[in-house]
Amino acid sequence: MTFARRMRRANAKADPQPLDIVVPDEHLRLPVGTVLSDPVRGEFLALPVFGWICRRVKVNTPLVMITAILIPSAEDPMPKGTLQIEMPVYPETELATLAALEAFGWDGRIWPEDKGWPDGDSDAETNLKSLMSQARLKSTLTFPAYDSGSSAQNVNVSRAQGPFLMPPLPPYEGDPDPEILAKFRTLCENPAFLLLRRTN
Questions:
Q1: Torsions phi, psi for 24 (to 5 deg)
Q2: What angle do helix axes 178-189 and 94-103 make, rounded to 10 degrees?
C-alpha cells in the first residue's frame, strides 16, 4: 500500500467526512519508509530481501519498492525488524533511484526469470518463494549480495509505526550501465511484466 493510500485510510478512520488533503509536490518525490514488523526506531542497516515496481494510485507514478531486514550493525546482525522502502520514479529522480537499487546490490536481474542467486541455495530459494507468495509477487528484483551482507545500506527509521518521509536519494555518480538503465525503464513502464498479480 502506498504512502498516499495509507494517508487516505488514516484520514477516513479519523473522520467520517473525507478530507481533501494536498500532499506537497516535493514530498511526493521523496522516498517513504514503513516499518512492517513490531515497532522499531533508530539507526539501522537495511538488508534487502526482495523488491518490485508498482504504480502510485491515480497519478500512475512508478514506485520502486524494497522489503529489507533491519539489523543494528554488521557486528550485530540479529534482525530487529522489517522495513518497506518506497521510491517514486520521476524524470528528476530516475537515476538517483537506480543508484539506490544498485547500492542495495541490484545488477539488473529479476528472479526466477534470470538465473543467479538464490539458485543453488535451496533454503534461500524456499524462503524467498514464501516471502514472495505472501507479498503476492511472481518475480522479484534480485539482490545477490544479500547473503553476504555487503548490500546493506544505512537508514534512519524516524517513525516506529506508520509511513515516514526519508531524505532525498543521493545523485547517480558517473554514467549508468546502458543495459541496466534500459531494463529499469522497461520495468517502470510496465510493472506488471515484472511482478504483480494485481495492482496495489
A1: -50, 140
A2: 110
Reported for 54-58, long-range contacts at CB under 8 A and 24+ positions apart, including other chains, are 54/2, 54/191, 54/195, 54/196, 54/199, 54/200, 55/191, 55/199, 55/200, 56/2, 56/4, 56/88, 57/2, 57/4, 57/5, 57/200, 58/4
Domain ranges for the chain, please list them: 30-167+174-194
State how far the Cα of 154 lies from the Cα of 158, in Å rounded to an integer. Answer: 13
Reading the chain (200 residues) residue by residue, the pLDDT tens digits are 543 444 344 334 333 333 344 556 778 899 999 999 999 999 999 999 889 998 887 788 999 999 999 999 988 989 999 999 999 999 999 999 999 999 999 989 988 888 877 888 788 888 888 888 888 888 889 887 554 556 889 999 999 998 999 999 999 999 999 999 999 999 999 876 555 444 44
Quote the distance between the C-alpha of residue 74 and its chain's center: 21
Distance between CA atoms of 194 and 64, rounded to whole angstroms? 12
**Bridge partner residues of 68 (DSSP):** 48, 83
